[in-house]
Amino acid sequence: MRELVRIIRFTKDLWRYYAAISIFTILLAAMSQVQPLLTKGAIDQITKILGGGHANVKLVGVFAVLMFVTDFGQTLLSNIGGYYGDLMSAKLQKELSQRYYQHILSLPQQYFDSELSGKIINRMTRGIGQIGNFMQVLSNNFLQFLFSTLFSLIVVFHYSWQVGLMLLLLYPIFIWLTTRTSGKWQAYQKDINEQQDIASGRFAEAVSQLRVVKSFLQETRELQFFGKRYQKVLQTTRPQSKLWHTQDVWRRLVLNLIFFGVYAYIFIETARGMYSLGTMVLLIQYAMLIRLPIFTISFLVDQTQRAVSNTREYFDVLDQEPEIVDRGDARPLRVDDGEIVFDTVRFGYEQDRMVLKNIDFTIRPDTKVALVGESGEGKTTLTSLLLRLYEVNDGQIRIDGQDINAVTQRSLRGAIGIVFQEPALFSGTIRENISYSRPRATEKEVLAAAKAANAHEFISKFEKGYDTEIGERGLKLSGGQKQRIAIARALLKDAPILILDEATSSLDSRSEHMVQEALERLMKGRTTLIIAHRLSTIQHVDQIITLKNGRVDEMGTPDELARSEGIYAQLLALQRGHTESGKKQLKKYGIAG
Fold it and tell me: In this predicted model, what pLDDT tens digit does every residue of 482-499 receive, in sequence order?
């Protein structure tokens, strides 16, 4: 019941649509309820004529006209109600999707580290679809069911309290029979949803990495994984469907027996002369009108069960509290110089496993600092903490003396530009991707950024230039082209602090030269933190910070550390050795040579 109340509260902003649909539904039900009375009136008049009595022939004609009016009225009202239902459904989908998306964007990076993107999407589409279906059923069927049932029972009780009592008993019996299997049915549905989420998550992964799937000839494996999950869905659907339909046979059998009693009673009493022919037809018609809502109960319960089961994960996501929120007194970050201080910073993705332990260092304004360490030592984690994608467990990070926890996230991330190792581009045009960092940038500013990133030349060669569609994740571009667009995007942002996950190791020599030249322009005049992948890059920085066992192992200029016996000196020696074992050792540090 809690979930149902939440669904209704969640969609309360659409009450105008619900009200309009409900009014049309009630009018529709009222017209359908009037027809048996008109039929009775016409039959009573015709019976008099057939019996040789006096009857009002004009009144029979009036009944026929009124039946046409109510019939056409139902056609008109059902379509107007359907129109408002379509509008409500579209508006509901828009609002629920936006609310879900907005909340997802507010969740911490850690949430996405443990969830498959396919699962997140599947929960949204299933939850929103089910809420939409349920609210339509509720507004279209529930009030009509309630109104038509009450009206029908009142009329039936007026003509025959015995028939009315028999029909009234249908409801508690049928509702009890329908709801007694609800818990088990929902347990089956939970298993089905879980398997579908896993299948969808893997599907999204495989599609996004189709080149890997094809190059390793794993199409069959991925298809088998997907099929195996849906086979489990099929295996769970069998007992779930069997449970529901077996119980439905018993429900309908009870219903059939009660209606057998109702019809038998009406026919026998009419034969005895207790009811007129018109009254008999009226009672039968109202019994039929009541029979339909009885089956609607089964449909309503089915939809309710689905709504509860299929929206649970949707609401679970919305119940996830954003762990990283701005303080009430948070102020915008002011960057005058760009000094960065990590002060005794401790962090772990899990509380009992610290990745970073008492990290202390200072990056002076307008300098280039390279982070060096084996994979898993926390280089990327440090940059994520600087962006406040995660919260430190202990210690403090300051920019120009300001604790980043005391400033707004928007101003913090607005002050930091970033170029990822894998250029993260979106489907759309080249212009849209460059201006992603500043959507309101002028054409002149976009061109200037592209030229500074050594991208304008190759962009101009495309038939549509900056309006060229690049495909999902920029698949229509080469690695060097993608990287230069990513650099242009960072240049356009013009942030005083730069995080550079250097990405030249996998490029050909010409592309590497073009990208490196663009990076030099990008770093000029900025405080730059580099996760280096080439020793040639490290040799030109102002300071090197090496990480070992989650701690700062050494700090100094390239010349100072080259003369030490630390990690950097060892890497230089390995590079000079040109041995296979040396290359493997360099690879552990993410260094291409």
Answer: 888 888 888 888 899 999
Number of helices and strands (H, E) in the chain? Answer: 22, 10
Tell me the pLDDT tens digit for each residue of 441-476: 899 999 999 988 888 988 998 888 999 888 766 667
Instruction: Check: CB of residue 127 under 8 Å from CB of residue 310.
Output: yes
CATH number of 337-410+527-593: 3.40.50.300
441: nearest Cα among 451, 449, 430, 453:
449
DSSP code at position 139: I
Q: Could you identify the residue written with the tokens 């013009």?
A: 494
Q: How many CB atoms lie within 10 A of CB 210?
A: 13
User: Are 347 and 358 spatial neighbours (Cβ–Cβ below 8 Å)?
Assistant: no
Q: How far is CA 164 from CA 34, 38, 265, 283, 312, in A?
A: 18, 20, 12, 9, 40
Residue-wise DSSP of 243-261: HHHHHHHHHHHHHHHHHHH
Q: Can you give the pLDDT at residue 520?
A: 82
Helix (H/G/I), strand (E/B), else coil: 554 = strand
d(CA 107, CA 317): 9
pLDDT digits (tens, 9 = 90+) for 346-361: 998 887 788 899 999 9
Alpha helices in 272-361 (DSSP H): 277-318
Going by C-alpha positions, the residue among 79, 493, 126 that lies closest to residue 311 is: 126
Beta strands (DSSP E) in 156-215 are none
Which range among 217-226, 335-344, 456-465 shows the weakest confidence by mean pLDDT? 217-226
**Model pTM?**
0.67
Closest CA to 568 of 527, 592, 531, 539: 539
347, β-bridge pairs = 356
Quick check: 78 and 32 in contact, CB under 8 A? no
Would you say 28 and 75 are in contact if contact means Cβ atoms under 8 Å apart?
no
Q: Is the dihedral of CA 237, 240, 242, 248 positive or negative?
A: negative
Q: How far apart are CA 314 and CA 193, in angstroms?
A: 11
Q: Cβ atoms within 10 A of the Cβ of 249, count?
A: 9
Q: Is 578 left (phi over 0), alpha (psi -120 to 50) or beta?
A: left
Domain(s) labelled CATH 1.20.1560.10 in the chain stretch across 2-318
- Chain region(s) in the chain for CATH 3.40.50.300: 337-410+527-593
CATH number of the domain located at residue range(s) 2-318 in this protein: 1.20.1560.10
Which range, of 282-286, 536-540, 549-553, averages the lowest pLDDT?
536-540
Is residue 115 exposed (0-12), middle (13-18) or buried (19+ Cβ within 10 Å)? middle
pLDDT at position 402 is 94
